[in-house]
Structures are given as structure tokens and as C-alpha cells.
């Protein structure tokens, strides 16, 4: 095998293709949120099933990401990317043509399966194409900005498609991304794979998938009560299975998740912060879209545009965030970012039924945008810094999985919190809109404390030179 990389010109065009893939995967976590009321009415989906249109994607994605990363490492990253693209397109077409709620949920789950192949393959190929230096920092900054703005872009695109076309186009639009990805991937991407031991860890795959599924389902059942036997049973089973998974990873000679990937203090802190970010970007922002439509009476398009302020702030301040990262280093930046984001969420927690978007929502979104800008620019780079080439795919998978596991659990927990708060307010005689606004505010308040915990985690675990130049990943041999 040779270690020859493509020309600089080709590398940057390849980054465009991989960036579009990342955008598709991230926005699919949120694009259907805006369309949910319309899809629910069209397909007769019950309120209790509604969250699974979002969660089914996140659960299968999270549960299979580590396996997807290993498949990318062992089978070939370009090959895995291309197969993932085809499968994702097929699942999107099925979902867009679904005739029942169960069919839509199943299609969303299948999307997650193929996204679990796509995402780690794409991120690992960025590490391959940009092994070190300033170009690597720029490439990961681009990927980080896409990860940060993709969710909000999903809300906007979902609003446009739902209002002016049909909610089904929120899934069918993926076909355009898939076609572009397949053509660009065939022309521009190089093949690479890990050397040495390439055996798969079947027991590890089964235990981690069952563990995450049990935990997320258990949190979802908490909507009916934390003390219910099935809630306790699933959460207990999930925790036991996760313990078995971790124990096995330290024993087997071919682990699904080599513990060396997470034992590094800085990288472990980055993975934890990814999970915290998922709590807000997937869990809390879902309830902001509900507030826009159910309390403020916005159309799907207006609700989509309601999130643009945060996205705009992230994009506008990204160059400044990059300089701050270079000047002050990762610890300072990744502590300040979560604190700012938490401050924005505390502002949002004060929303009322009588308040307007401009007075009660916009200020919080602007502050959150400033905070997220500081987080997204360095986070992807930090999560992969210094990873052994053999583990590039699985580390990329863990970076993605952390965010989506956080989001999946957040949707479930926040649904339980929302239901409890709403029921209590209505029982006490509050009107429907004030009760809804109060329940949404409680979700944002809880998310703010989670993000504050993220700041504490960053301060305690993340270290790095003030130059912001993190240890490079060695170039992976390409063939």
C-alpha cells in the first residue's frame, strides 16, 4: 500500500462531498421535527408515538455507529461510504412514500442504520485527507460548523418543504444529496482501510446495541412514571448490558471500541461534551419548534426561520472562534462555549404564552449561537486528535454516537418532563397555551443545567496547548 494522498485541489473538493454528507446526516435528525404536526395528522400518528419519528432514527444510528466505524475501518472507508449512500437513499424514499405511522417510523429506523455507515466513514476520510497542520484544523472547523448548523438548517428546510410542498419532501429531498454524494464520491474519494487485525467483535456489537436500545426505551417509558416496573426494568437492563460491554472491550483481542480511544483524558472529555451538545441540539430544540407552532402559532416556514438567528450567529462568529481557540487553547474555549449556551437556555426558560419571538426567544438564540460557535469549531478535531490510524473509523463513530445518544436520551427524558409539567399545570387550572409554554420552559431550564455540567466537564478534563494545534492523526495508508 502507498501513502500517497490526492492533490490539495482534489482534497478540498472531496471535503465538499463529505461535508454535504455530514449535512444530510445531521439535518435528518431534525428536518422531520417541523413536519411532525403535518405528518401526524396525515398518517394518524398518536401523541405517544410522535417522538419515535425522531427517536427511531437516533436510536438505530447511535446503536450501530460503532459497528459502522469498524466496517469502515476494515472493509474500506470509500466502499462503506458508497453503500451507506445507496441504502440511505432507499430508506428515505420509503419514508417519503409511507402510508402509515408504523411504516414511517420503520423507514426512519432504517435511515439510521445506513447513516451509521455513512457518518464514521465520512469523518474518518477527512482525517485521512487532512492528516496534520493548518489544513487539518480548517477542515475540521468546516465539519464542526456543518455539524452545528445542520440541525438548525434541518428545521428551516423542513419548514419550507412542509409549507410549500408536502411533509413527505422532508425525506425525499435526501435523494438529491445522495445523487451528489455518489457522483462526487466515485470521482473524488480515495479508498483507505486499517491494517492488521480486522476481526469483528460480534458480542460487543450485540451488547452495546441492546444496551443503548434498552436505555433509550426505558427513558421513553418514564413518560408514564419513573417508578413503573417497565421503566426500571429497561433502565436496569441497559445499565447491566453497558457494564458487560465495557468489561468485554477490556478482555477481547479485537474490541468494537478499543478502550485506548476513550482512556485519553482530553478525548474522553470531548466525547462527553458531544453528548451534552446532542441533548440541546436534538432534545431541547425539538421543543422550541413545538413552541413556535403550538404556542406562538407560527407556520412551518416561520418556525423554520425562527431558528435561523442561532445558525447565523454560529456562522458569523466561526472565524473569531477559530482565532480564540488558537490563542487560548481548547480548555478555555470549550468551557466558555457551554456556559454561554447555558445562559441562552436560561433566557429561553422564561418564555410565556403572551411573549413574542422577538422579546423572549431571539435573545436566547443569539447567546446560544455565540456559545455553540465556540464549541463546534474545535470539538470534532479534539475528538479525533492523536487517534491511531487503525482506530480512525471507530473514533469518528464514537464522536457521532456521543451526540446522537445524548439527543436520543434527551428526547425521551424531556418528553417525560414535558408531559409531567403540562399535566400538573392543566390540573391546577392553567389555560392550554400558558401550560404549554410553561412545559417548554421547564425543558429549556433542564437543558441549561445539562449544558452547565458540560462546562464543568470541559474545565475538568480538557487540556491542550494554547497554540490550539492539537496532535495530528497519522496519515492512513491509501490504496
UniProtKB/TrEMBL annotation:
Limits of the Major facilitator superfamily (MFS) profile domain: 14-466
Alphabetically ordered keywords of this record: Cell membrane, Membrane, Transmembrane, Transmembrane helix, Transport
Entry keyword Transferase: no
Keyword set includes DNA-binding: no
GO MF term set: transmembrane transporter activity
SUPFAM superfamilies xrefs: MFS general substrate transporter
Gene Ontology CC annotations of this record: plasma membrane
Membrane topology label: Multi-pass membrane protein
Database matches in InterPro entries: MFS, MFS_dom, MFS_trans_sf, Sugar_transporter_CS
Main location group: membrane
Subcellular location per the Swiss-Prot or TrEMBL entry: Cell membrane
Highest taxon above the source species: Bacteria
Pfam families, per database record: MFS_1
The protein's name in its UniProt record: MFS transporter
Organism: Nocardioides marmotae
